[in-house]
């Protein structure tokens, strides 16, 4: 839903250009990280990567871990919102959004 909404706001040409540029940037980032991790095999996760890239800083390690946690929390929230909006659109009733959000949160907590 987010990608289709972005295309409806930006239009086809700017939307496709944005997606291609973002894909190139993600690829460059992943290749850079891969090369660094191949050079330093003791790196286990993204927090270790931040630790070594920023001069073995404990603050960088903690900040990277916090940002990873915040990213995951935001992704969960976006999935809950998207699912609720889909069910709201299918049911054609605005009160369902609140009920579906509470249901998704309860379901997510049980998993």
TrEMBL record:
Origin superkingdom: Eukaryota
Keywords annotated in UniProt: Membrane, Transmembrane, Transmembrane helix
InterPro entries per the UniProt record, alphabetical: AA_transpt_TM (IPR013057)
Localization: Membrane
Protein name per its UniProtKB record: Amino acid transporter transmembrane domain-containing protein
Chain ranges of the Amino acid transporter transmembrane domain: 2-104
Pfam families from the UniProt entry: Aa_trans
Transmembrane segments: 12-38, 59-81
GO CC terms, sorted: membrane
Keyword Endoplasmic reticulum among UniProt keywords: no
